[in-house]
Amino acid sequence: MTTTDSLDLSAHIERGLSDLRELVALQSVSAQGRMLPETADAVTALLETEGFSVARYPGQVAPVLVAEAGDGPFTLLIYNHYDVQPEDPLELWDSPPFALTERDGRLYGRGASDDKGEFVSRLAGLRALRERHGGRLPLRVKWLLEGEEEVGSPSLGAFVREHADELCADGVWWEFGSVTPEGQPVVYAGLKGVVCLELRCRVAAGDLHSSTGAVVDNPLWRLARAVASLRDADGQVTIPGFHDDVRAASEADRAAIARIPGQGEALVEAYDVTHRLGTPAEFNARINLMPVLNVNGFHGGYGGEGSKTVLPAEGFVKLDFRLVPDQDPEKIVALLRAHLAAQGLSDIEVVELESHEHPSRSDLSAPFVQTAVRVAREVYGHEPILHPSSGGSGPMHPFMEYVGAPVVALGIGNVAGRVHAPNENVLRRDFETGVRYALELMDALGQG
């Protein structure tokens, strides 16, 4: 790899920013079905200009694109998405959400970071790689882009399974990542799984006078009893069998976690957290390795001003589980149902919501992971912060399960990037370094 060569990236960076400007202007909001075919067309044109052959497949919401170019000893599969979140509330934007705007070293616009900025920074790096190698690519690059990520990627799992041969690769570069304010790249080698549910309880056809509480059970009490039975005071899930399939962390996982700086101080300070779970020393291990249950909302009865002496007829609770390898979402739902029945709460209905995501975690000793970390160290000039798993979730599992390749996530996001919120942004500095990283990672992989 030649990280000190004289290749001037300024033209590639400016062209990448021009690409980003044009893509941000396309309002590809998947939740509302806006401009998805048009954005798929624009992405296809960008890739075809760089010599990619692009196949287009129908998805449930938006087209799925699979592109391929180059040849060499290593095949890299890159995953990105071209859809974005809605811009609402519009009045909180300081500049038009679908016009890339630069202020004080930041580039603002919906998709500037998630995920159009990530895509075009990698494409700009690929152009620079071609220049370095006289117009050729020294590795095979496959690119999968979907337009459904912001609505849960309903087509992706089945698509990857059905097209596994077409997507076969030696390593997968995931769609996101971040850089600390000090310039340290943050690398993730996995994602937790997620299961989203509602618990629903009804005791009568309509609300009753609260005097009947002496003889009629209350759905909110039943739900509270159910929720209280699912977790202990330390945050450990208490459903029998829940932890049976949890994969033990490897020695490499624990070593990486031990090197992560901080013990959650930034989170506590940013959100004025008053009740922590676990000790500060356990923070990074719990975020990376611990399966958790969250109560997202508790609903029912009267919530208006003053009192209303009512016994509500029904109520519901929204929950999510964050899972770790090798927990299976369907098994977790079955264990929950069995637990509620054992508590005498079989009348509480368990309703599965969005599609579940399986957990995934790469082997940190895999050569691809090690190369991604080494190149990050050289390009950013800082020691990368390597997480065996993000605390969040996404459709990474199908790539590991069906493509059979390790996955790493490293990108151009930042802690103040306001992804999914008004004034989404990326630092111009991080965009520029992201182009350099794409160049050097692909060049290193191409050298075998």
TrEMBL record:
Pfam families: M20_dimer (PF07687), Peptidase_M20 (PF01546). Keywords: Hydrolase, Metal-binding, Protease. InterPro entries: Cyt/Met_Dipeptidase, Peptidase_M20, Peptidase_M20_dimer. Residues 192-344 form the Peptidase M20 dimerisation domain. It comes from the Bacteria. PANTHER family: BETA-ALA-HIS DIPEPTIDASE (PTHR43270), DI- AND TRIPEPTIDASE DUG2-RELATED (PTHR43270:SF8). This is Peptidase M20. It comes from Deinococcus aerophilus. The lineage of its organism: Bacteria, Thermotogati, Deinococcota, Deinococci, Deinococcales.
